[in-house]
Design goal:
By secondary structure, the protein is of the alpha/beta class. It has 2 domains: about 200 residues, 3-Layer(aba) Sandwich (Rossmann fold), CATH 3.40.50.720; about 220 residues, NAD(P)-binding Rossmann-like Domain (Rossmann fold, 3-Layer(aba) Sandwich). The protein has 16 helices and 14 strands. An 8-stranded mixed β-sheet has the order 3-2-1-4-5-6-7-8, with helices on both faces. A 6-stranded parallel β-sheet has the order 11-10-9-12-13-14, with helices on one face. Helix 1 crosses helix 3. The longest helix has about 30 residues. Bound molecules: uridine-5'-diphosphate-glucuronic acid. The site of uridine-5'-diphosphate-glucuronic acid has 21 residues, from helix 9 and helix 11.
């Protein structure tokens, strides 16, 4: 089986590497020449645990190949995945499908054999139909059949999520495509991974509904946490007890500084727009979007208040990525709060540490200082803000650091140290998403 993947971003690259690990011959295409040049040498453009080794192994065994031009592979492929970007249209919220449609047109112009064309990017309900219309325009509907196969991988655990998924969703109205896609996922049979076979539109909806639900779950617990903080009730016990109810489950019930990343903010907005297009108001998701923005803003304002009340002029941020195990800073709450503080407090000196996200943060051109050595980063700081729950921030020896800092305030946006009584005994003022 020969697979072509158009778009070598997060989803395209991880899917390509994992399909090649299954033993299929995979070529990943991207128009970014330097990215492809590096990938051919197993230099990967993102930080994703395990991906480097997987890419190298499968380049070496000739299952995985990279190129900038799809043309010479089109008529050797059995299956073409579209994994190009679908960014939010500026000021609109709809997913922008121009890269998807451009790729479809290029395929239609050159294809002269039977292929299955599959959307892997997150695309609005009805996209497969629009793709079919383009194919009809080129009179290629005898050759090209269409399917939707959304991806549910998380940054930071993407390979595990691909190789050990909770489920695989295959959406198509065409029997040939269904059989071909089911055979692609046969290697997962050994793990008895459930495969949900459905039509294209339902498959497209499943992806948005899943992300919107998870964003709702997080926002729900974030609001409960605001209540706990105000009333002195215990958020840890609330989430534990709720999570033990199998109907609720403990995952995605951790309070934090609002969800971020490249998916939830974009997909909740798009979901709301898709509903509106069908003249339905998605009240819950609309409220989640607003609440999540408000959570980030309220936290920023609270931090500013603490800074002013304690006459703090030097702040250290720990963690810039939107979550651990990734260098992705898109919609990161840390970056949001830093921007807010820089805007509202002209004399504040901010510095930041992150294990891998500093190069991406630098592209934001923020007026802050970066530390690469965690142990040296506390020197003469007055306040520490824990923005991301990287493992290295879970065992900080605050006793040793006390004397290095010139004032002693901690804001723990991930509730890592809420049970650590020592911190307060040492003389730190400790704030979290739960303390009163
Ligand atoms: C998310 C989904 O989890 C994946 O299933 C999906 O495939 C992916 O989007 C996508 O659409 O491509 P991802 O954005 O990589 O994956 O990250 P998550 O682990 O879902 O975290 C998203 C945000 O929620 C982060 O800001 C994280 O800090 C926050 N979060 C997560 C919480 O605040 N609390 C939690 O309990 C869980």
């Amino acid at each position: 089986m020969n697979i072509l993947i158009i778009g070598t971003g997060y989803v395209g690259l991880v899917s390509g590497a994992c399909f090649s690990e299954f033993g299929f011959k995979v070529t990943c295409i991207d128009h970014d020449k330097s990215k492809i040049k590096n990938l051919k040498k197993s230099i990967i453009p993102i930080y994703e645990p395990g991906l480097n080794d997987l890419v190298k192994k499968n380049i070496d065994n000739k299952n995985l190949n990279f190129d900038t031009n799809a043309n010479k592979y089109l008529n050797k492929s059995d299956c073409i995945f579209l994994a190009v970007g679908t960014p939010s249209r500026r000021g609109d919220g709809h997913a922008d499908l121009k890269f998807v449609f451009k790729a479809v047109e290029q395929i239609c112009l050159r294809i002269n054999k039977k292929i299955v064309l599959v959307t892997k990017s997150t695309v609005p309900v009805g996209t497969a139909k629009k793709i079919k219309n383009i194919i009809k325009k080129y009179k290629k509907d005898e050759l090209i059949t269409v399917a939707s196969n959304p991806e549910f991988l998380r940054e930071g655990s993407a390979i595990n999520d691909f190789l050990r998924p909770d489920r695989v969703v295959i959406g198509t109205n065409d029997e040939y495509s269904r059989l071909l896609l089911n055979s692609l996922y046969k290697p997962l049979n050994i793990r008895q991974v459930p495969i949900v076979n459905t039509d294209t539109e339902t498959s497209e909806l499943i992806k948005y509904a899943s992300n919107s639900f998870l964003a709702t779950k997080i926002t729900f617990i974030n609001e409960i946490s605001v209540f706990c903080k105000k009333t002195g009730t215990n958020i840890g016990d609330v989430t534990r007890a709720m999570g033990l109810d199998k109907r609720i489950g403990s995952k995605f019930l951790h309070p934090g500084p609002g969800y971020g990343g490249s998916c939830f903010p974009k997909d909740t907005l798009a979901m709301s727009k898709i509903f509106k297009d069908h003249k339905i108001k998605f009240n819950i998701v609309d409220s989640v979007i607003k609440t999540n923005d408000k959570i980030k803003e309220n936290l920023s304002a609270e931090i500013l208040k603490i800074i002013k009340a304690n006459k703090i002029s030097k702040v250290l941020f720990l963690g810039l990525s939107f979550k651990p195990e990734t260098d992705d800073i898109r919609e990161s709450s840390s970056i949001f709060i830093i921007k807010y503080l820089l805007k509202k407090h002209k004399n504040l000196s901010i510095s930041a540490h992150d294990p891998v996200a500093i190069p991406n943060a630098k592209k934001e051109k923020l007026n802050i200082k970066y530390h690469f050595d965690l142990n040296k980063s506390f020197e003469s700081q007055q306040m520490v803000i824990i923005g991301t729950e990287w493992n290295i921030y879970r065992s900080i020896n605050f006793k040793n650091l006390f004397s290095q800092m010139s004032s002693h305030v901690i804001y723990d946006l991930r509730n890592i140290y809420i049970h650590d009584k020592e911190i307060v005994k040492l003389g730190f003022k400790y704030y979290s998403l739960s303390s009163k």
